[in-house]
Amino acid sequence: MRKETPGNVTVPADGPDAAHPSPRVKAADVSQVLDTPPPTPVPADDDLAALAARHGLSVSGARPSLPEYVRQLWARRHFIAAFATAKLTAQYSEAKLGQIWQVMTPLLNAAVYYFIFGVLLNTKRGVPDYIPFLVTGVFIWTFTQSSIMAGTRAISGNLGLVRALHFPRAALPISFALQQLQQLLFSMAALVVILLGFGVPVSFSWLLAIPALVLQFTFNTGVALIMARMGAKTPDIAQLMPFVLRTWMYVSGVMWSITRLTKGDHLPHWVTLALETNPAAVYIDLMRFALIDSFHAKQLPPHVWAAATGWALLAGVAGFVYFWKAEEMYGRG
Amino acid sequence: MAEYTDERVPTVVCDGVDIIYRVNGTGAGRGSATAALNRMLRRQQTEKAAGVRTVHAVKNVSFVAYKGEAVGLIGTNGSGKSTLLKAVAGLLPVENGHIYTDGQPSLLGVNAALMGDLTGEKNVYLGGLAMGMSREEVKERYQDIVEFSGINEKGDFITLPMRTYSSGMGARLRFSIAAAKDHDVLLIDEALATGDRSFQKRSEERIRELRQQAGTVFLVSHNNKSIRDTCERVLWLERGELRMDGPTEEVMEAYEEFTGGADKPKAA
Question: What's the predicted TM-score (pTM) here?
Answer without folding.
Answer: 0.79
